[in-house]
Structure prediction request, 836 residues.
Amino acid sequence: MTALVREPIETHRQDDDPRQRARGRPRDEVARKRILEAALELVEELGFAAITTDAIAERAGASKATIYRWWPNKAAVLIEALREAVAQETPFPDTGSLREDVRIQLRDFIKLLTGRRGRLFKALVAAAQNDLELAATFRAVWMAPRRAVAKAGLERHRGRELKKDADLDLIMDALYGPLYFRLLAGHRSLTEKLADELADTVLEGIRKR
Amino acid sequence: MTALVREPIETHRQDDDPRQRARGRPRDEVARKRILEAALELVEELGFAAITTDAIAERAGASKATIYRWWPNKAAVLIEALREAVAQETPFPDTGSLREDVRIQLRDFIKLLTGRRGRLFKALVAAAQNDLELAATFRAVWMAPRRAVAKAGLERHRGRELKKDADLDLIMDALYGPLYFRLLAGHRSLTEKLADELADTVLEGIRKR
Amino acid sequence: MTALVREPIETHRQDDDPRQRARGRPRDEVARKRILEAALELVEELGFAAITTDAIAERAGASKATIYRWWPNKAAVLIEALREAVAQETPFPDTGSLREDVRIQLRDFIKLLTGRRGRLFKALVAAAQNDLELAATFRAVWMAPRRAVAKAGLERHRGRELKKDADLDLIMDALYGPLYFRLLAGHRSLTEKLADELADTVLEGIRKR
Amino acid sequence: MTALVREPIETHRQDDDPRQRARGRPRDEVARKRILEAALELVEELGFAAITTDAIAERAGASKATIYRWWPNKAAVLIEALREAVAQETPFPDTGSLREDVRIQLRDFIKLLTGRRGRLFKALVAAAQNDLELAATFRAVWMAPRRAVAKAGLERHRGRELKKDADLDLIMDALYGPLYFRLLAGHRSLTEKLADELADTVLEGIRKR
DNA sequence: ATCTAATCGAGACGGTACGTCGAGTCTTCCC
DNA sequence: GGGAAGACTCGACGTACCGTCTCGATTAGAT
Prediction:
């Protein structure tokens, strides 16, 4: 999955024993950060298609070779940028009310998609259509963790507000799918009202009676 | 919208007065068909990334100039290919039962997405993320007509199985969004079971009580 | 030999039947000339190592792709430039006197090597050391024709001023070798005096007695 | 001239007062030897074009930094390798016969050029065309000493077999130039027969009568 | 039966970005 | 302070695709 993050010729890794450092000049963490930032800025300003590896390198004050040493292509850079940017994500809320939890969560997500990051999402989903490895990485880095959290959040309500046999994967697709759909197809806007109505509609269909 | 379909330098057009033909050699309809077919085949075989204008031209036995005379870019070719390919679309069913209508419709759509055409959809949605005009055309050519039909199909049930104030746009997004989502994100497969459960879940949430 | 001059996918060639033109857009002869000129100018101004394919393209107002379509590398461009530049070469003189013929010829050659073209020669001989095909082309395009002419010029004197069994190849190497040597090694300058003395020394050794 | 041999940041040097050694770890002579050997092997095996600093370092088990600490560029490494390799050169013979002396000397030289070292010469002469300093070093390290020896060898015969006013520089160019010429242009092979005939031809032209 | 206009296949063109490679420098730890 | 390891910047490389263009050859209606 994380093969998108190159590990050339057995280099240092932070999950190793911290006492035992790799030999040779260590990776320049500052450059790494600058590259990720530059990529992020450029996508948000110009969109994915308009940016080039050279542009990222120039803005980051790095060289193209450094970018290609660590990432196989520009999409991989953005994946990592995304990972870093959303590391401190708002957790699934726990208000006690399923309806309230879901509403809050959907609203937050809409806020994310309509914010500066929206363009990044569109770009990555688009790029993933032509790159299996990128698609897998996108799922592993972004979707899987978020779905795990959301699933756990819903699980708390199983047997109470939720039917015992509720299919949580289906529910999550029913909740998030329409949002991604509107983001990508652009036929309607993403509003808070949508979040609330969608939450009500879906939950009504799966609540315990 | 349809600016994606070029009308070069005031040339002949079939929707004009049929008696008055333009002078000069008329457009080669056979070439047009071959180009659309070639484009379609290439997407389905190799995916969008593998498509180049040269490849389309070569497979169609046409020249690049011919392609660019009639379409402004390769995405426009695909849009038109899509339009032709789905011209004879299954209409929204009318079994009398809302649940049955929706199930049938979703199943048909899933069949479409998982068939050879799926790759084409992914390609177009992806390409549309970086091309506003293509996005608009995609909505106009593909989504709008289908949504209109589906809306009319649902409308028939308003006040009967459907709440009087049901938001049909929301419902359609709730029904189709998850399917597009799975198609594009690829985290789960598109099965008939999904169609049925999704129909039940969403309709349960909006049915008249 | 002339494989250094690319002939991609059976394109037009001037030695074909002139009535039957190749299909497609013909090669842009103006661009070809501009490229050769640009390359020549750059070598003479900056030397071989300092020039880049981009620089040639830019100065010629052409694109890099055009260069690579017709020549495999920049050395091949120079070879062709050389061929064109020396097409109208001064023929081997025919004064009646062997000594005079050789003197004139060597002086002309020295004039060539010490002129603007000298740099080009150095560059090509240097580049040929790392490129077998280029080396072969250099010999075929430049050396072989000149040697043939010179050989014929010497042949006229065989049995008269020249021994009957004189090894003309050896003689030519004895005459030209030292000039190339000084050009490439740079330990001494190339002067007219050298031409005369060299002619006398070598001819003395091979004249009929 | 010897600027090609770096003397970095005022470090120890063996020609200083031997009692006073520089501080710190002394230069690793083993590494130096391995680097020179590696460079030599690579030129002889693969030619100059195949040589990269990385390749030398890898084969020598050294690091690039070490190479660049002691030599300003890879050509300088080869120059030094050449210097070491030819340190124990066969001296100019002294048989008493000029003709015999020259023949032996030319044969030896041809043996050198056609042996494994030939490639090195070609490489250095080629590289020197684009590098003035390298060219100067090549002349100083390789050509000058050999020419001095040869000149002395010829000088012994002046007034005896040689004309009193013979131009020894010219003679040496007439003798060695053709050999370099064939080496670099590759139009004919270097044989012992060539050595003998060349010696006879040139000497005939300059001998005392 | 020409003439005129627009199309067609072929393929060369200028341009832009790609991903790679080598040169030479710098930074870390180890000895 | 030297050395191995290896990351870094810089700049050129040769390739690929884009969308445009320029040919000769076709194919029609207009004259």
Observations:
- Residues 7-19 of chain D have pLDDT under 50 and may be disordered.
- The CA atoms of residues 103 and 196 of chain D lie 6 Å apart.
- Chain D has two domains: 2-85, 98-206.
- Residues 25, 52-54, 64-65, 68, 72-74 of chain D lie near DNA strand E (CB under 10 Å from a C1').
